[in-house]
Amino acid sequence: MRILAATLALTMPALAQADFDTKAKFAILMDEDSGTVIFQKDADLPMEPASMAKLMTIAVVFNEIRSGRLSMADMFFVSEHAWRTGGAASGGSTMFAELNSQISVEDLIRSVIIQSGNDAAIILAEGIAGSETSFVAMMNELGEDIGLTDSHFTNPTGLPDPDMYVTARDLADLARYLIQQFPEYYHYFSEPEMEWNGIKQPNRNSLVELGIGVDGLKTGHTEAAGYGSVISTDEGGRRLVAVLHGLTSMAQRTEEGRKLITWGARAFERVAAYPEGAVVAYANVYGGSSPSVGLVGKGEVALYLPRGSRKCLNAQVNYTGPLSPPVMQGDQIAELRVFCDDQLVQTAPLYAAETVGEGDLVRKATDALKQLALGWL
To answer: Where does the record locate the signal sequence feature (predicted)?
Structure first.
């Protein structure tokens, strides 16, 4: 069973709510390296991704390049479907690609990231998979591989579709995937502008030019969903990833994004709680070759806590248990939840320190009543 504290993510106030709030309907702020959550607000509720869905399009493209099936110099044809659905006549964001022309993969990537070109996204989808439908299957397959368990994509553009949805948490994890897996391409996200067909367009992420260290990643907007953005910065000595959505204007999106990312970079102190490989706690394994498995962080478990809050801290380790073997080393099976005066201020994922296989009959009988272990430090 999952203990009660682990079921409160959607009903509790946002992390550190006493110190910060946002006008966004959905929000999350993560440490990019560890996945530690510093702030969240309805981060697991489904929402329309708008053009932020293009981050999954770009993830598929980068994977195709890494596999050798695609190169930046490949040229893709501009079909009538891409021209009509995503071009100037559609009224949406576009690179103004000319019908029946050919455009390089690199220029299409730049357009999707900088201009949010719907035509560019469709051209990439058709060039890679033959059709949007086949490309969407690739998007969802990669999303499953990444672990985006609460998202479903139906097109490469983010154009409205009632069957397409994401969560703020999944978008943040997707951003972390792009940053960590494709650092050689990350510079595209901070390019200030792009010109195509004689038309110059600025980066739609206005935070890139504010001088606050933001260097990505994507904005989105539809009438129904409002304004949103996926943001990253390495200001403050570590990289943060933020997602906000459901805002009412471009100006509000910029201001709320600036506030969240600045607060995250400045309002916290780093506490090295556990060195790399140190066991944080143990989880019970029912019927395993060992009665429990150690829980460790990804590298060092460093907590980012509101300044001056160390004396108020307590924590618990939550997981769905007892676990059933086999438990594989490296599996994410638990979560460290840190509180200050009963206020949830941070979460961090925990992983199995070793593999625990099936135990004998005696072990299975004696482990049946083991309960969840709690505690910290």
So the answer is: 1-18
Predicted local confidence at residue 339, as pLDDT: 77
Q: Is 200 designated active site?
A: no
Which residue out of 34, 51, 111, 292 is catalytically annotated? 51
Q: Per the omega criterion (within 30 degrees of 0), is the bond before 142 cis?
A: no
Mean pLDDT of 311-325: 80
Residue 136 has pLDDT above 60, yes or no: yes
Among the options 116, 229, 232, 292, which is catalytic?
116
Class of domain 30-266: alpha beta
Rounded to an integer, the average pLDDT of 168-186 is: 97
Average pLDDT over residues 77-100: 94
Which of 56-77 are b and which e, b meaning 16 or more Cβ less than 10 Å from the residue's Cβ?
Answer: bbbbbbbbbbeeeebeeebebe
Instruction: Domain ranges for the chain, please list them.
Output: 30-266, 271-366
Strands 301-306 and 268-274: antiparallel
Report CA Rg, the chain. Answer: 22
Q: Do domains 30-266 and 271-366 have the same CATH topology?
A: no
Per residue in 266-290, pLDDT (tens digit) is 887 777 788 888 998 898 888 889 9
**54 in active site:** yes
The answer to the question of whether 370 is labelled as a binding residue is no
0.90 exceeded by pTM: no
How many angstroms separate the CA atoms of 31 and 11, rounded? 22
Span 271-366 CATH architecture: Sandwich (2.60)
